[in-house]
Amino acid sequence: MLAFVLRRLFQSLIVMLAVALIAFTMFRFVGDPVNQMVGVDTPQEQVAQLRQTLGLDEPVVVQFARYIYNAARLEFGVSYQFRLPVISLLGERAPATLELAFMSALFSLLVGIPMGVYTALRRDSWLAKIFQTVSLVGISLPTFLIGILLIYLFSVTLGWLPSFGRGEVVKLGNWWTTGLLTASGWKALILPSITLGLFQMTLIMRLVRAEMLEVLRTDYIKFARARGLKTRAIHFGHALKNTLVPVITIAGLQLGSIIAFAIITETVFQWPGMGLLFLKAVQQVDIPIMAAYLMLISFLFVTINLIVDLLYALVDPRLRATIGAH
Amino acid sequence: MSAQPASPAKQPPSLWARILDSDILASFLRSKVTMVAAVIVLVLFIGAFFSPWIAPTNPFDPATVFLSDANIPPAWQQGGDPKFILGTDDQGRDLYSAILYGLRVSLIVGLLGVALAATIGITLGLLAGYLGGRVDSLIMRIADVQLTFPAILIALLIDGVVRGIFKHANREDTALYVLVISIGLSFWVQYARTIRGSTLVERNKDYVQAARLVGLPAPLIMLRHVLPNVIGPVLVILTINLALAVITEATLSFLGVGLPPTQPSLGTLISIGNRYLFSGDWWIVTFPGVTLAVLVLAVNLLGDWLRDALNPRLR
């Protein structure tokens, strides 16, 4: 088991190093850091001196090592367009993105699981067929179209919900801002969360449906029926409980995608989060922000994958056996 | 009379006869949804690629576009103009024509992007599967890492980096190529994995061993002998990926890092329309949006059908 954990940790480290190499290449070679800092009329000697103080005349390997060292201390340089440290820009916007991601994950679970259970138990009812059709449309429609549709319906036509921004936010502690403590904050969260969570919701619904159908055919369900247990107890006590393990895994793995897909939703709703910042950086070719965002997102993905893998090894005895055999 | 040619039964059936007789056609004719989807896709492709002849106006000819025609509602609404069936956009372009031209741009980017992705993926998959060893583990590790990230994120990053490299070029000239490169580099993994898997099986078969014994060079064996035998499943991925590529292109254009408003794709048109949503000009965003949704849904349905039709286990 220890060997497995170590090997898995080592793999994650290699992935992070590879990502860091890409981020460093972007940072160093695509956007020349010096050219962005000096004006057109800066004398050559001053440019050369700046190069030296920044360490840009040293061997590339040394520069790469320094980049990693700085990244580990969360120092990603200064944004070209804002002239501010990248990490403070990202930190300022992180709460907005995290709150949005959390709410849409919650939405996709709370709506997706019941819909999946229903479509599995009442396969031939008309409501189940409607759910299936909706899920096909949900997978086919691009996220931004769903967002526009919701805005047109609930903001423009009905005027119930705001179409942009976070509403009123409250400061918690030094750097966390939350929209969860004001009514306007909650109202502003509804449409973006649904837009962002819809794809995951359809995914979870299909997964729960498939798993439920599978589990309902197994022997222990038949046995439970033979024992004369109530249908309700069989469906929810036995069947659903056993479908939830893969569902929670997928939901965990999808958390990273939610944060990545937040780029689109945040643009549609002008949500002041990290995704919107990243998009502005791509538009302006602001390489330090792009590189830092890449590193942060990768770290998130790698960490989630690592945790899921380790938990699996802990939970699933079959997997543990194969790991031990190696 | 001269001797009749060999009786038809002995002759190998023509290609047309084989198509008429195949299971695929039969399953196509059995599924009404698929036939509707195919007709829709055909109509959209014809509309897109013959847009210069079909569209009533050329929306990009400054001589025929007048700013005074801007934001005219569709013909059946109050204030509509029968000249512009679906209304006009913010620059006075006929929306129906703009959608046809935009559809063409979307499809060109999608097709080229998928072609690039397939070329990269098939090449790397063949190399990984046939050569094995270090080449294999290097390629497949890269594929694994890339697969953990959503394609849209990778496409955005590549888009930014490529535009950073081309930063002195005119954006209107490079936008299309930037998009094709971003899509190609984001979607190659699936092809590589599929091709590698089947290549690993084919590599040990007798005909490959024989070709090797004869002394054929490895590239020739890969291209002439292995490739024709592993290419089948790629067809399904190509179809489903076309829908994904069109969505990706539309998303990038909507986000403002794709095609500029001077040569709009469907995504650019939607993004223009989104700005006028609040002033009540619903048509600018709705018609391109519906076109995109219908295209993607129809291509997806075709892809689903193709997957089932080519899967021998489901027959």
Topology:
The complex is a heterodimer of chains A (326) and B (315).
Chain A: H1 2-30, H2 33-37, H3 44-53, H4 60-72, H5 86-121, H6 126-140, H7 143-157, E1 170-172, E2 176-178, H8 183-216, H9 219-226, H10 231-268, H11 274-284, H12 287-315, H13 317-325
Antiparallel strand pairs in A: 1-2
Helix pairs in contact in A: 1-12, 5-6, 5-8, 5-10, 6-8, 7-8, 8-10, 10-11, 10-12, 11-12, 12-13
Chain B: H1 15-21, H2 23-30, H3 32-49, H4 51-54, H5 95-131, H6 133-148, H7 151-165, H8 171-186, H9 188-203, H10 206-214, H11 218-230, H12 234-254, H13 266-275, H14 282-310
Order of helices and strands of chain B: HHHHHHHHHHHHHH
Q: Average the pLDDT over all residues of chain B and give the rounded result.
A: 80
In percent, how much strand structure appears in the residues of chain B? under 5%
Q: What is the first-to-last residue Cα distance of chain A?
A: 10 Å
What would you call the structural class of chain B?
mainly alpha
How far from one another are the termini of chain B? 46 Å
Helical fraction of chain A: over 70%
Work out the number of β strands of chain A.
2
Mean pLDDT value of chain A:
80
Oligomer: heterodimer
Q: Beta-strand level of the residues of chain A, as a percent range? A: under 5%
Contiguous uncertain segments of 5+ residues of chain B: 1-9
Order of helices and strands of chain A: HHHHHHHEEHHHHHH
Find the count of extended strands of chain B (DSSP E, 2+ residues): 0
The gyration radius over C-alpha positions of chain B equals 24 Å
